[in-house]
Specification:
This protein is α/β, with parallel strands linked by helices and about 750 residues long. Strands 3, 4, 5, 7, 8 and 11 form a six-stranded mixed sheet that branches. Strands 6-10-9 form a three-stranded antiparallel sheet, with no helix packed on it. A hairpin with a 5-residue loop joins strand 12 and strand 13. The longest helix has 28 residues. The chain is elongated, with a radius of gyration of 30 Å.
Length: about 750
């Protein structure tokens, strides 16, 4: 009967029309998309086009009898809808035709409708009275190949380190007391030191391999074992040892670096103070040079001037203390001085007071503490003197005359720590995603019939939308941090101010991303995600503080924004800054032409998936925010407002710019990398991940782009639909993508992930 009523040309469109009229999926304006596809479909006769077009009349929809006939045709075909198909509805329509007709070629016009309307399986799989097949995973991509792409030139280092982690000492367990936990973590740190990992970022002369890039990669992999291990390791070898390496000279290296890398000399990094937090320049601890005795005297002057939250404080024999260096009555600014804390029997030395910070939200395997100094004398040679020294005559000298430049140069040498914190946060996010997704690929819940098996969590579109963009972001941020560390380690670029600005912003958005991801994964696992045994709870507590470690994220974003405003060069004072603004406004105003209305409403897939569009959108946002911010600050300064107060008035604007700049930087870094992937299959996958990241970020800030007129409402809707569509397309490959993180099986201890 159906063959007599419907020709093959009409039959192939019936599933599409059934979806459209069942869910009222398209608006009146979007029906134009279907009409255009029909008119350009050469497989249709004029009569068939006329019939199909008549079914699109909004004021005269198909009669109920016609609608029922469509439903019967679909049901009687017995065709199964396979959600994992690249174009599931088009392929389904083709199979329906194949059931009733001898010829059933794939129709590109149907594909165009499915793509351009953003139709997804969740819009229609409940409509068909047929069984829906779900493919849990696909072997189209190889997780080992993906892991190899991510490891890059660090493959050997990462593989060897993952093997080292396969030892009973790293077996995850629940620790109830901080004392027991700290002992286990200290033993783990010493074990890694014995394998050469503590010193790997140090020069070969001091037991290392001079491999800071490799060091950053193992930092991420340590998170698969435990956050406390990661931070304790970083404090000992990265912060304490790193300050000796980067701020000290050969005499300090010869005396301390070998012992530090071997964990024979345990140390801490005493910078932060209770009363000053992120304001390193304003710390109050003093280091006064006494010319008569040729010593430097460390002192904590006030109640809230003690060092606060210092990792390794209870185990350390020595501290790298940041203090205001006073020589001959003149404050020469913040410098680092090595200060012994304890004797051979681990007793505190005279004038040193240390208190345990106690239990924290997370990282209870790290011994954080408070430190006070009361007139503690150390030899003049203990000053880490790469950028400022006191000579034998008691005179302060420095090759960097400008105190501000000297201060920022000293801090710039420690940028590696921010990269490592971001890398650790990323490792925590990857671990949580792997647990949540592997759980979602086994856990079933709900269906529409008691006769068939319940649906996998990962097959729900909402679950896909919650987790898949987070996976894409993990790939983008992994590649970006790799590149940042490469630039930081490049000796041909001695001026680290630009990379310092870039890393400040990236550290902020990535550690926030990590926290949001872990929380989403916890919720996606329900009550199971709340159990300690499944690891996400500990990750949640451990990674939370990363938004504060190595600089508060809100402060760092402002640093990034100021770097954009000053082109990473100018100092911020009202005189010099005004000239910078004039130049900046002249450069930007020419580029901020009114957005073409046709562009603002362009919604075809080719455009929305094009990296040129993504880059243009991100660049436009950064430029626009820079220009408007610059104009606001200049306006305040013209009115006589001091530059510091002007910046206070635009703090939220600074944060928006810092975030926008960092997202643009991450995306541009990632796309440059994907273009270099030689394997076409893997390159296409990474490009799709980059597209999902870009559209997800644009979707998050859609209100801003709408306010600026950069996108119209139709384009905003299309971006949302494309984001959902990409999540559906990546669904068959989602386990391969998290396996591509390379988390070793011996670290995947969560029961719900096994």
């Amino acid at each position: 009967m159906e063959k007599k009523i419907y020709s093959a040309g009409i039959l192939q469109y019936i599933p599409i029309f059934y979806v459209i009229w069942s869910d009222d999926l398209v608006s009146t304006s979007e029906i134009n998309v279907v009409e255009k596809a029909i008119s350009s479909d050469d497989s249709l006769s004029k009569e068939e086009k006329k019939v199909l077009t008549s079914w699109l009349a909004v004021n005269n929809p198909p009669a109920n009898e016609e609608f029922k006939a469509w439903k019967n045709i679909i049901s009687n075909s017995g065709v199964k809808l396979i959600e994992s198909e690249t174009y599931p509805l088009t392929t389904f329509s083709q199979k329906v035709v194949c059931h009733y007709k001898d010829s059933c070629p794939f129709n590109e016009s149907l594909k165009a409708i499915e793509i351009n309307l953003g139709i997804q399986p969740n819009h229609y799989n409940h409509l068909f009275d047929v069984e829906v097949e779900y493919e849990s995973v696909s072997d189209f991509y190889d997780a080992k190949e993906i892991d190899l792409v991510l490891k890059g030139k660090n493959a050997t280092v990462v593989d060897d380190f993952r093997t080292v982690l396969d030892h009973d000492i790293f077996k995850w367990d629940v620790h109830r007391t901080k004392e027991d936990f700290r002992k286990i973590v200290l033993d783990q740190v010493k074990y890694l030191a014995s394998k050469g990992y503590g010193a790997m970022a140090y020069p070969k002369a001091y037991g290392g391999t001079n491999d800071m890039e490799g060091y950053a990669t193992i930092f991420e992999n340590m998170m698969y074992v435990d956050g406390s291990l990661t931070i304790k390791f970083g404090v000992q070898f990265g912060l304490f040892g790193g300050s000796i390496q980067k701020l000290g000279t050969k005499k300090h290296h010869d005396k301390y670096l070998n012992k530090t890398g071997e964990a024979d000399l345990l140390g801490c990094f005493a910078m932060t103070e209770t009363g000053h937090g992120s304001n390193v320049r304003g710390i109050k601890t003093t280091a006064t040079y006494d010319k008569k005795t040729d010593v430097i005297v460390l002192h904590t002057p006030g109640e809230n001037d003690n060092k606060e939250y210092i990792g390794n404080a209870l185990d350390s024999k020595m501290a790298s203390v940041f203090a205001q260096l006073i020589v001959n009555g003149k404050n020469e600014g913040v410098h680092a001085i090595l200060v012994p804390l304890r004797d051979e029997n681990h007793k505190l030395l005279p004038g040193i007071k240390v208190e345990d910070n106690g239990y924290k939200l997370g990282l209870n395997g790290v011994d954080n503490g408070k430190i006070w100094f009361h007139q503690v004398s150390v030899p003049r040679e203990n000053l880490l003197n790469k950028y400022g020294d006191i000579n034998s005559e008691g005179i302060y000298t420095s090759d960097i005359q400008n105190p501000n430049k000297r201060f920022f140069t000293m801090l710039g040498t420690l940028v590696g720590g921010r990269i490592c914190v971001a890398r650790a946060g990323l490792g925590g996010a990857k671990m949580a995603l792997a647990v949540a997704i592997k759980h979602a690929l086994k856990r079933r819940q709900f269906n529409d019939s008691i006769k068939i098996q319940e649906d996998l969590l990962m097959d729900y579109p909402t679950h896909q939308l919650r987790l898949t963009p987070l996976v894409a972001s993990a790939y983008v941020y992994h590649i970006t941090l790799d590149k940042m560390m490469e630039v930081y380690c490049d000796e041909n670029q001695p001026d680290k101010r630009k990379v310092e600005t870039q890393v400040a912003g990236l550290k902020s958005i990535i550690t926030w991303y990590a926290n949001n991801t872990i929380q989403e994964c916890r919720e996606a696992c329900g009550g199971k995600g709340y159990l300690l045994e499944n690891r996400i709870a500990d990750l949640k507590g451990d990674v939370d503080i990363f938004t504060t470690f190595e600089g508060d994220n809100n402060v760092l974003l402002q640093l990034a924004a100021k770097g954009v405003l000053s082109d990473f060069k100018a100092e911020f004072n009202s005189a010099g800054f005004t000239s910078v603004l004039k130049l900046l406004s002249q450069q930007l105003s020419d580029k901020l032409a009114t957005v073409n209305p046709l562009y603002a409403n362009k919604v075809d897939a080719e455009h929305l998936y094009n990296p040129k569009f993504h880059k243009h959108a991100f660049e436009y946002r950064t430029r626009r925010l820079t220009y408007t911010l610059a104009m606001r600050i200049r306006s305040y300064i013209k009115k006589g407002v001091p530059s510091y107060q002007a910046f206070l008035k635009v703090q939220t604007h600074l944060l928006a710019l810092g975030k926008a700049y960092s997202i643009e930087l991450a995306y541009s870094t990632f796309t440059s990398f994907t273009d270099s992937i030689t394997n076409e299959t893997n390159r296409a996958l990474f490009q799709k991940l980059g597209t999902l990241y870009a559209l997800s970020e644009l979707r998050k800030d859609a209100s801003w782009f709408l306010e600026q007129g950069y996108i119209g409402s139709a384009k905003s809707k299309a971006i949302r639909q494309r984001t959902e569509r990409l999540c559906t397309e990546l669904r068959p490959h989602i386990e391969v993508l998290v396996d591509g993180f390379g988390i070793p099986d011996h670290c995947m201890s969560a029961p719900i992930a096994r």
